[in-house]
Design brief:
mainly beta, globular, 5-stranded antiparallel sheet
């Protein structure tokens, strides 16, 4: 359906796309890389409004191969309103293949990799905000968390049935896009969600956190903020104390925007909130942008969208609330997109990518622009609602960085580079962090990925498996590998960055606490190699 323009010339020291794909439709959602068809190569996923005279009548889901052509069975057109949200992608039914979950204004959909509906779908629940996915009920399979436009928050199994205790009713207007993380340290995911309601007047506006097993509120929640929450909350252990914090922006008509950090018990963290003018449409991204500064940093766009208008800025805050840098963006710009964080120039340090009206900008943490940026992207100076966030990764598995940018008018630019790609140096590679839209720093890009290898072959033996007290690994690799172990909720429970030779894991978490029996995913990475191994603790 889309048209493709192949770019054959290369300009030294300037970005030149491998191809440009034209959807022919407005696009407010963000780009995602995921292996939809199980061929071990990721595709590019995008959702749009319709292409007709009235774009509000339909929505379109695109799955694009890395050569710029449509994947077999795609795009898919749905006739129940446009799709303004970014899909959540994972293996919802445990068949070893990815599914795409997304909502339009008037419907809810789950698609198989070939573009056909999953059994039990579609459903008649509409949404304006992006869903998330995670294992909420400890059954080993992820569920879809859906902020519906009827004012309720749903949790769906892969077959379309609704989890017990759901839907959750919120008292005001629409629940916003959710984030998922174990904020109370019980080993299970909690759902974090803000309220987006009008009129935008001073008042008490709630940030909620629920235990999904019984839809009860996490102690200390809701937390009342200064205003409504338009962007997605983020979740991270900012200060390195072992507990997760919630990072969220709120605003009202008398407040240019406040950025909050909330502890897992609902208390506002020391040093917060901080002013971040105009950041209401930019979801925070998290990364270790200043290695010499304690904790992780927060990057968020601001300015331009407030009245009176402010010039666009990119704010960088420390974990303690200190404003480390305020980078002035192109004159007259407004920020209605979310940043991503990765090493995009191969200098082994992190940079920030952000869409600003007609340009994709990239900055070093000190405010200096990355070579080749800003990159022009015709967008008619669009500054309302939302704009697509960039996506970075290594979708073809060649060990080098690829990037994708999109405009609000449905033009997608795809780039291949000679910059080595290290997932450890891409801590926030896309909108809401990962393909499940968890918005959680450190969450695996796809914890339900099939067991197997990526990159060159390395001989690894694992025994015994299942195991009771200890599992051993024999690794035929020169130099150490990085071992990360995730539980069935996708939560990192153990990590050893120097795993080599004959090594073992004793089934305990990072703090040395005994972990319960169940299924765990061990991810071994080194250089361009990665392998995922399913472990069973009895």
């Amino acid at each position: 359906m889309g048209s493709i323009l192949l770019i054959v010339c290369q300009v030294l020291a300037a970005l030149s796309p491998a191809w440009v794909y034209h959807t022919g439709a407005p696009m407010l959602s963000s780009l995602t890389f995921a292996d939809i068809d199980g061929d071990s190569t990721e595709e590019l996923i995008a959702t749009t409004y319709g292409t007709g005279a009235n774009p509000y009548n339909e929505g379109i889901i695109h799955v694009i191969e890395l050569d710029g052509n449509d994947a077999p069975g795609w795009p898919v057109v749905i006739y129940a309103g446009p799709i303004p949200s970014t899909p959540a992608i994972t293996d919802f039914d445990g068949d070893g293949e990815m599914e795409i979950f997304v909502g339009s204004w008037y419907g809810t959909y789950m698609f198989r990799g070939d573009g056909t509906y999953e059994l039990g779908w579609p459903l008649n629940y509409g949404a304006y905000y992006s869903p998330s996915a995670g294992n909420l009920d400890s059954d080993g399979l992820p569920e879809a968390v859906f902020p519906a436009s009827n004012g309720r928050l749903y949790a769906f199994n892969g077959d379309g049935t609704i989890l017990p205790w759901f839907p959750i009713t919120v008292p005001h207007d629409y629940p916003g896009t959710p984030a998922l993380g174990d904020i109370d340290g019980d080993g299970k995911l909690e759902i974090v969600c803000g309220i987006n309601r009008g009129p935008v007047a001073p008042g008490r506006f709630e940030l909620y956190a629920w235990n999904p097993e019984n839809a009860s509120l996490v102690p200390g929640f809701p937390v009342y903020l200064c205003g409504i929450i338009k962007s997605s909350p983020a979740i991270a252990d900012l200060d390195g104390d072992g507990g997760l914090e919630i990072i969220v922006d709120a605003y009202d008509t008398t407040n240019y925007d406040s950025l909050y950090v909330i502890e897992g018990n609902g208390q506002v963290a020391s040093g917060w909130p901080q002013a971040a003018p105009g950041s209401r449409l930019s979801s925070p991204a998290i990364g270790d942008l200043y290695p010499d500064v304690e904790g992780l940093e927060i990057a968020v766009g601001g300015g331009g969208t407030v009245s009176p208008p402010l010039n666009g800025e990119l704010f960088i805050f420390s974990a303690s609330g200190e404003l480390l840098n305020s980078i002035e963006l192109p004159v007259g710009s407004g920020v209605n997109s979310s940043p991503v964080i990765a090493d995009i120039d191969g200098d082994d340090s992190l940079e920030i990518l952000i869409k600003v009206q007609d340009e994709i900008c990239a900055y070093n943490p000190d405010g200096s622009p990355v070579d080749g940026f800003p990159y022009p992207l015709s967008d008619s100076s669009h500054s309302g609602t939302n704009s697509p966030a960039p996506a970075v990764g290594d979708p073809d598995g060649d060990g080098y960085l690829e990037m994708a940018f999109a405009s609000c008018f449905g033009e997608i630019h795809y780039f291949e580079t000679d910059v080595p790609y290290d997932p450890e140096l891409a801590p926030w590679p896309m909108y809401k962090h990962d393909i499940r839209n968890t918005s959680r720093y450190g969450a695996p890009s796809s914890p339900s990925v099939k067991e197997g290898s990526h990159g060159f072959d390395v001989h690894i033996s694992v025994w015994p498996n299942p195991f009771r007290e200890r599992v051993f690994f024999s690794i035929g690799f020169t130099g150490p590998l990085d071992l990360s172990v995730y539980n069935d909720a996708g939560i990192l429970v153990y990590r050893n960055p120097r795993f080599e030779g004959v090594s073992s894991w004793d089934g305990r978490d990072i703090e040395g606490r005994e972990l319960p029996c169940g299924v765990y995913l061990a991810v071994l990475r080194g250089g361009n190699f990665a392998r995922t191994i399913t472990l069973v603790k009895q």
